[in-house]
Inverse folding.
């Protein structure tokens, strides 16, 4: 089965991990700080590493101070963790519709649902294409909310010359194997605001405080620490950070290859009837995580099944979040975000990863042409 996504591991990655295994540090050591610095160089903002993309969102909501009585506005066209991270802090999630063109959070839809209780507005950079953060930040500033960018798809992307880590107050990343770079499991939170990043760092470290000038009882001894707020152990170990730094050194090459493959899909599929291709807005330089086409005329299920039968691992990204039973049980109903639901009904992700050969891509295109032409 040709997968829709796959990691790219070379000898430099293997050597980095082996070197970490032979060091004195397997958990929190010097490679954590190095990887965080390497992320900052790409994301444009200081970063804190965590265990995965889901815990990155959890830590971001903790840093934003989300809690009971708050509202968080977000998109339904994402993995459930973008929303559920806020629910776990007792907040009410408000789903706003997406733009038809990009499947990103629609600022006009956000404007219609924000209230004085809105604590955070969380956008997703769908398929690697950054959301309209300038418009979203204006809305957030008006109601006193924090902006959060779920950039699980988008490390390496830029928006009008600015890297994704600088677009929102808090930005989260995922380093799952199918993403743009991998640490096996891993993630990060970036922020240009030192106060928010400090809260995320403390939360991912079980709430522990060791700085002498911040302790309530600083005279106990060198071993002493305090837990001043509740947190969780979301620390990414040195071993995986070694892999992450090695992968980041290859990120420019990853981006160039993903863009080449995207351009090739655009050319090969441009004249296929019954198919709508993804767009790229002016000023956006995306790291394409997905190549999401829209299969028209109600044929998405047929095309999905037949492509899989042909050994081509297409995927659907994503089920509208409020369709999941956990949200149905909270009273959310289908039909709330019609643009997102129309997108979901047609969306299909074609294989896209570093290492996808032209021959494999030709196979994908031929199979898709044959199905849609029959």
């Amino acid at each position: 089965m040709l997968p829709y996504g796959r990691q790219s591991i070379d000898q430099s990655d293997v050597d980095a991990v082996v070197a970490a295994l032979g060091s004195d540090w397997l958990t929190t050591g010097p490679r954590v700080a190095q990887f965080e610095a390497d992320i900052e160089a790409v994301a444009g903002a200081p970063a804190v590493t965590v265990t995965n993309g889901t815990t990155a969102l959890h830590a971001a909501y903790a840093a934003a101070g989300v809690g009971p009585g708050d509202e968080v506005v977000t998109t339904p066209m994402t993995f459930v963790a973008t929303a559920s991270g806020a629910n776990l802090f007792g907040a009410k999630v408000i789903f706003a519709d997406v733009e038809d063109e990009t499947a990103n959070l629609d600022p006009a839809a956000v404007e219609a649902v924000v209230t004085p209780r809105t604590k955070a507005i969380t956008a997703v950079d769908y398929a690697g294409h950054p959301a309209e953060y300038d418009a979203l930040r204006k809305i957030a500033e008006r109601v006193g909310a924090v902006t959060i960018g779920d950039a699980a798809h988008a490390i390496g992307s830029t928006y009008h010359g600015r890297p994704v880590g600088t677009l929102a107050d808090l930005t989260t990343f995922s380093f799952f194997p199918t993403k743009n770079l991998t640490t096996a499991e891993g993630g990060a939170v970036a922020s240009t605001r030192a106060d928010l990043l400090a809260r995320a760092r403390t939360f991912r470290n079980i709430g522990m405080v060791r700085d002498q000038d911040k302790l309530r009882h600083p005279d106990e001894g060198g071993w002493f620490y305090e837990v001043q707020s509740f947190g969780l152990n979301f620390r990414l170990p040195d071993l995986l950070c070694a892999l992450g730094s090695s992968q980041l050194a290859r990120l420019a090459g990853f981006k160039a290859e993903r863009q080449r493959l995207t351009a090739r899909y655009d050319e090969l599929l441009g004249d296929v009837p019954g198919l709508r291709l993804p767009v790229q807005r002016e000023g956006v330089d995306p790291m394409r995580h997905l190549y999401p086409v829209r299969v028209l005329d109600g044929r998405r299920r047929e095309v999905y099944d037949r492509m899989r039968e042909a050994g081509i691992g297409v995927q659907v990204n994503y089920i509208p979040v409020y369709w999941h039973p956990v949200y149905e049980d909270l009273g959310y109903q289908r039909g709330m975000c019609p643009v997102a639901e129309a997108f979901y009904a047609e969306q299909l992700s074609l294989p896209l990863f570093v290492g996808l050969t032209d021959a494999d891509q030709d196979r994908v295109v031929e199979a898709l042409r044959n199905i849609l032409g029959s």
